[in-house]
Fold these 4 entries.
Entry 1:
Amino acid sequence: MSAPQIQAAQALKAIARNEHIKSYLQQSEELYPLILQAAKRFITGESKQEGLVAAKEMLGKGYAISLEYIGENTKGEKECREAKEEFLQLIEEMGTASIHQTVSLDLSHIGLLIDTEIAYDYLIELAEKAKSYNITIMVSMEESSKTDDILNIYKKAARHYPNIGITVQAHLYRSLEDIHELMDYPGRIRIVKGAYQEPCDIAMPRSKELNDRYLQLVEQVVKANHPLSIATHDEPLIRQIEQRHYLAYPQVEIEMLYGIRPDLLKHAKDNGYTSRIYLTYGQEWYLYLCHRLAEYPENLYLALADMIQPASPDKYDSY
């Protein structure tokens, strides 16, 4: 990124955590519909039904899918329980529809900020339900302050439920050591660069060094013959991954977020690689939208265009 792009990304990450701005936008009858139009480039909608419709559409096009009910940093016990119930209903409806795919979630959406035991118990309940339908639960990674708790809960749960996977952020220096331990567990490992703004003493900035570390982590998991999701939209990085033939391994897939570089994911699918699209739904899309814009500040232009002239209703054509 150029210096102005880095500044824009940092500003967007700061805005993402500003509860005052979030509350103002959510309560504004004028701004909320406009911002939602921008968000709909990256989310399937605000309801579970919209998420399931999108999932079926993408499955019909030959993609694997991961579906998430958006939310994180939930501070009320009632709200965490309601989120857990929403995930249970999502798993039930996916299973009934024979969508034997992946459900992704943040542990802070189901109780991590209240009590790690609540988050663990809810994760186990979801994993048990998912197991009956051959559905995978993929635990996302959050800010570095939560990493130890997330990994501890995952390791405890994964001993009993191999259908739980875990996400690793390549930009954290600790991830090189973490990934060695995680390969002792059966769950799929998803490697991302990392979307959160972290201190420079614990995380790398976007750079060639980070790309090299990403490739290093991928190589270790591939060589261990461990189930792996390569989650990136970085085209030069993807080219290197293809040149090294990592995507040709049967236990490896490439995963991308809905609405970002559909051309790259379609290219991977058309070349016979297992290609997964990460779909989201829900009303807590504000933070998610800010992160998508921060990752690639040029998306601000698309967001502005979407506010003025919404994209075509058939928004899956590009896939």
Entry 2:
Amino acid sequence: MTDGWDWRRPGDAPTPAAPPRAADPSAAAPGTAGGRAASPWWSDALADPWRDPAAPAAVVVPAPASGGTAPEPVSDPDAPGRPGLRQVLLISLVSALLAGALGGALGYALAVRGGVAAGTVLGADPAQAPALAQRKPESLAGVAERVLPSVVTVRVSSVGGTSEGSGFVVSADGHVITNDHVVAGGTGKASVVFNDGTSAPAKVVGQDPESDIAVIKVERTGLRPVEFGDSDALAVGDPVLAIGSPLSLANTVTAGIVSALDRTMQAGEPGGPVRYYAAIQTDAAVNHGNSGGPLVDAAGRVVGVNSTIKSLVSDGQEAGNIGLAFAIPINQAKRVTQDIIGTGKARRTVIGAQVGGPGAAVAGGGVRLASVEPSGPAAGAGLQAGDVILRLNGRPMAEPSDLIALVRKFAPGSVVTVEYRRGSSRQNASVTLAADAK
């Protein structure tokens, strides 16, 4: 009598009392004990007389012998498998569609709630943007910034209306240079407007119609006068700025170069005085209203007073800039200004000879002297009536106005070299110019 537990060790022969069992479907393999694979555990569960036929049997698969065939791998159908490529692509596509839909919905909600432009920032953050480079003092912008506080708009009332031009401060006590034709015909009273928009009354100190220079005085303190340059040191091609109020557009700056020097100008209104000067020609844009404003070199120094423009329009029509403008040399304008401030009038430089009339302009170049004052500078240098002036300080003479304008460019007492022809001979003479006795 037993409790049904078979205490046999694996490999032992069955006891005689055990009933015969059906043949083991698995054939005994060579090298096994008792016709079955050696196992550390007993696996003869099918021969157990007490086994429930309905209970599943646990089968222990023996390990293959060395060099034998490996068993076929067994996979659990219930275990989670690795996703396929189609599944990955499908999941990514669905995720992208969901994210786009969500982003669009949020963007629409924000736009409707706060306005489309409310959340939009254009441009860089000023706090993070690099600071703008400061303009160098020698740059055109630096020069303009330095000179503009000294430039003013000049307004003069007259019977015919209001004349407007430009001017610039030349002394700390309020003296301003402008053109004579800006203040001509006025009542002697004027007003100036500074570049900051403030204005102040002014009065005319004096004027010289023949040089087209006038001086007015502003009753205001804290003014900044301009720095003067040397107009005799200019060369063709030097850069210049014209500053003023062309066409009533205050604080206008235009740039150009010196395109010619000692360009003879003979100007004046019908019935008025004739103005002569050897001008600085520039291609800086100059229009009506620039008159009296400064012509400035690249160092910010005033080298001329803008005065005249050339135009292709007929007489009586409004002239406009065509790339040619003319300025009075500052050396001449400064000298005239000092005379006006000191004495109320300007001295006129003369050579002591008369030109003009028939035969004044000689074929082949030169200007013939119609007469010579007995005690004048020309007579003192040995010049005579009938002599033909060919050059003055190397500048060729072609018209009578050339000699007049160039002589007035120099200050009284200046010594100039005159090349002339008498008959068929050429000669040179040094002439000391003088001031007119008027």
Entry 3:
Amino acid sequence: MSANVWNQLNARRYQPSLPLPPGFDKESILKTLASLSIDGSATGELKGYATADCERFLHTLALIPENAEGELLEIGSNPYFTTLLLMYFRPKLSLTLVNYFGGESFESEQVLEYVGFDGQFHRQTLKYLNCNTETTPLPFEKHRFDWVIYCEVLEHMTQDPARVLLELKRVMKEGAQMVLTTPNAARLENVVAFIEGRNIYDPYSGYGPYGRHNREYTRHELHQLMVHCGFENAASFTANVHDDIPGVTPESMLQPVLLNIPNREHDLGQYLFSKWLNTGNASSLKPSWLYRSYPADALD
């Protein structure tokens, strides 16, 4: 893609400015995230992840008010970048962490070592629940949580994403809020890839079926799914958090198509950022646009 394609189609023109905690810049936030080691692991792979997605973590944090309090459930907390931001910048929240590393459900812990946002070295033990939320009910009572963080997990579901959302709804208080982020299937770099004959689908992963993106969503699809599951939208935008994958398609070819589709310029970002209120009634049926090969009376 030519360098000047970003003049009109760059998602950064239409997304919120990068939200930063007072007194911090991106570099100081990244310094802490990039220093993280889990159970004595080397920081190399985590450092690359933190560097590439630091802006995503900051946009996610900003969807939770500075004065937020109560109980927060974070699904897929490992590798704890968002967790660290929440603990330091949203200290009134009590965090419950869930991961899935395979096998049956069990409680465990991981040891984190990092240079904190205060500049000091920290060694901290975090407890978490190992649970496959797609197949196993969460061991929490109804209406327990004030907040849910469900970030970069939805796209990994292999069988029944609506079931997971309904289970999260069950443990949320009436009016509780969910912050949900997921890759945008209709992002600009995917549009360009298809035009140029490149595949957009995720490679098979050495971490198994949950280690890859099994189904990504467009902004409209995410809205459909969440409303179907009884949530009301409170915030929604797409955003780039790093440079797009380059292509060779010129700007002059893309602009007449994309910029003449109403509001399409707002839907080209790499990630979908959204916040949802637990206020609606959920359907017990599966949305027919997302599921197939089910009995007719099981589909909406």
Entry 4:
Amino acid sequence: MQSFIVEHHLGEVIDVYCGGPDVFDGKVEACADNVLTLVKGGKYTHIAIDKIIAIWRT
């Protein structure tokens, strides 16, 4: 999943679904060490790759 995100979504604005009500959105800033980093409004969200169920471009 990490290499897929880096190759196809680095710099893109995406939504990330982690189950239940957990949906995060932002620009893909980085993806390393099994952690996805999104940035939105100057704030960073760090998501464990193994918790991601689905991602899509917004």
